[in-house]
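Input.
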Amino acid sequence: METLDWKPREPPRALLIGHDPRLQKSNTQAEYVLFANYYFDKNIKDSSYKSKFGLASSAFNQITEITNGKIKPEEIYITNLCNTSLPHAPKGKTVYIPEKLAIAGVDHIKRIINEYSSIEYIFPMSLQVNYWLQKLGFYYSNAEFIEKSTPKSVGILNEPPFYEAKENKSFLMICGDKFHFKGATQTVIPILHAKCFPLNKRFSAYIPGYNRIKNYF
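Output.
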């Protein structure tokens, strides 16, 4: 099963890029990325409605807040770097996206951007997503960030594999900064995953970066 992109009702101004389709602690795979349909469809009332709606709300609310309300939920297109199921990582670890699937994901993202010329901002969420986007040349890279975010072989070779960067705090190097999509005019702004929003004490180190984003708008 492929998780579907969320295509907004209005011409999208922002592209939000998630990680993979399956919940970390469940085999549930979303029909639409980040259960975005739960945010808009008030008729959905299944047993896990609250958690699914919560994830979707965090995704849309994060973009609305960091753009000072300039980008509305109805203007956000959402996809994942990988929209197919991957093996669950060991408890407390992050699912590893193989390079082959990351390349396919980048190609898909480029097609979205070519199709929707209205997209002005790209928000890639999480360390691994931004590692692959820079590693594969999607947007202008920071060589030091790529080096420090390179996955440890102990994780890749594990069964099941998991992603663990050489330096876990490397995302602080780029989160909230502005980059540019190669050969285009869109602004790329790396952010934390929706499940980390709103920021709590655990992510307090990212507050300056998030304040920086608000100043762009």
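The chain has seven helices and seven strands.
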